[in-house]
Design a protein that fits this description.
Blueprint: E1 2-10, H1 14-23, H2 25-32, E2 37-44, E3 52-57, E4 65-74, E5 79-87, E6 94-105, E7 112-122, H3 130-153
Helix pairs in contact: 1-3
Length: about 160
């Protein structure tokens, strides 16, 4: 397995980031990341564990869709995880991919720390390059920053 773990600090309370970034990402992604995401739909489930979402991308992304399943949705501990089932980077090089996010209060209590781990299980004999892994890391950081900017500009959203 290969991938990355990243910790990002934010001035936003962890509960707000969790509500917007985990529970409502299907609504916000097409708005906040409209250059890349055209549509997200829940195709199975009620938003909880086991829910399957399909994301459709714009021409700015090298693939058209992804299909992911929610594996963990812990509202009390502010933890969210999913598995990529189809599309996106799966296929030629990757057999499976997982994503896990945990939000905690920052040490000063005024914001939060977002810990994210993305794991990739390459196909036998395939090694992912640092550039490939870094591209996903940078995409996550960009999406996180867009969400943070939205919540800072809209202090009553997800409060």
């Amino acid at each position: 397995m290969t991938g990355f773990t990243e910790e990002l600090s934010s001035a936003i309370a962890p509960s707000r980031l969790f509500l917007a970034g985990a529970l409502d990402s299907h609504k916000l992604a097409p708005i906040l990341l409209s250059e890349f995401v055209s549509h997200v739909a829940i195709v199975e489930g009620d938003g909880g564990v086991g829910t399957v979402r399909v994301t459709e991308f714009t021409d700015a992304v090298p693939y058209k869709t992804t299909r992911e399943r929610t594996d963990v949705l812990d509202r009390e501990n502010l933890e969210y995880a999913y598995t990529l089932l189809e599309g996106g980077p799966l296929g030629e090089k990757i057999e499976s991919a997982t994503y896990r996010m945990k939000l905690t209060a920052s040490a000063d209590g005024g914001g939060s720390v977002c810990s994210v781990t993305m794991g990739y299980h390459p196909k036998p004999g395939v090694e992912l390059t640092a550039e490939e892994v870094n591209a996903d890391k940078e995409a996550f950081i960009g999406a996180f920053q867009a969400l943070e900017a939205y919540l800072l500009a809209n202090p009553n959203a997800y409060a």
